Amino acid sequence: MTLLELQRRMSEDVMRPLSAEFQMQTTTDDGRSTAAIAEGYIKPNDRLSSFDRLEIYNRQYWFRVITAVAEDFPALNAVLGSEAFDELVLAYLRENPSSSFTLRNLGSRLPEWLQNHAEFTSGNHDLAMDIARLEWAYVEAFDRAAIPPVNGADFAGFDGETKLSLQPHLQLLDLKYPVDEVVLAVHRETGPSDIMSNAISERRQTSEADLPEMTRQDVYLAVHRYDNSVYYRRIDHEAFQLLSSLQSGSSLGSALEAAFEGGVYTLEDQTAKIQECFAHAAELGWFCITTPN
Asked: How far apart are CA 18 and CA 109, in angstroms?
C-alpha cells in the first residue's frame, strides 16, 4: 500500500458515518467487515484491537463535526432536547458531509435540509425551522462583510430609479414565531464553552435554559452587526417588504410600491413609515450604493 493509498483508506474509514448509537459501524455499505479492513493497515496493541484503535479516530472525527454544528444552533438543541438534536445533526451530516476547509460552513445547509425532515422536530416543525433560520442568520451576520454605508449627502440625489444595496451582513427574516426571545434566552443561560452537542463520550450536564412560551405570531426581523456585535431588530411588515425588495435588486421606486402593496394607508401614513424605516436603516448604516457591473 502506497502512502497515498494509505491516506485515502484512512480518510474513508475515519469519515464513515457512525451508527445510530454513535459507534463505528461494523460493516461498510457494501457489506465488508470494518474489523477486517482495520486489520489490513492498523496494528493492535495489548489493550486495543485494530477495530478499537480505528474507532477512536472515527468517533472523534464525528464528535468534532457534530460539535461544530451544535455550537451554531444552541437554541434548537434546547428546544428539541439533546437526544433528538444529536440524532438530527448526525442525520444532517450524513447527507451534508464537510466539503470546505473551514468548519464554519458545516451548518450552512441545515435550515434548508430541515425543511424536508419534519421527523426530527417532534411536532414543532415551524418553530424549529424559525429557530434554525435565526441561528444561522446570526452566523452570517457575524461573519459577512461590512462596506462603507451611504452618507447623508448621498440621499439628496436619490430618485425612483436609484438602486440601493444593503450591507452583506444584514439578514432579513419573516418568521411564524417570536423565536428571537428563545434564542436570546438560551444565549443568556449558556456560556460560549457550553454551546455544544451532547454527542460526546462523556456527556457534560448543563442547566436547561428557562425558555419562554411560544405563541404563533408573524414576526419580521433584521439581524445585523453593529460595533462587532450581532443584534436582532424587529421591524414591521412594510419595512420588511421595502428592505427585501432593495436586497433583491429592485429600484427604490419599485421597493416603495412593494412595501405598501395591498395595504390601506393614507399618504401621510406611508410617508411616516418610509421616514421611520429610512431613519433607522441609515442610522445603523444598512444602505450602500449599488455599483455598476
From this structure: 20
Are 73 and 135 in contact by the 8 Å Cβ rule? The answer is: yes
Question: Which residue carries 444552533 as its cell?
Answer: 73
21 CB-contact burial (10 Å; exposed 0-12 / middle 13-18 / buried 19+): exposed
DSSP secondary structure code for residue 103 in this structure: G
User: Measuring CA to CA, how many Å separate 112 from each of 65, 92, 108, 133?
Assistant: 19, 11, 8, 9
Pairwise CA distance, residues 196 & 193, whole Å: 7
**How many residues are there in the chain?**
293
**HSE-up of residue 115 (Cα within 13 Å, Cβ side):** 5
pTM listed for this prediction: 0.83
The answer to whether residues 289 and 252 touch, using CB atoms and an 8 Å cutoff, is no
How is residue 185 written as a grid cell?
A: 434566552
Instruction: Render pLDDT for 152-201 as a digit per residue (tens, 0 to 9).
Output: 777 777 888 888 899 999 999 999 999 999 998 898 776 543 333 333 33
249 with 163: CB under 8 angstroms?
A: yes
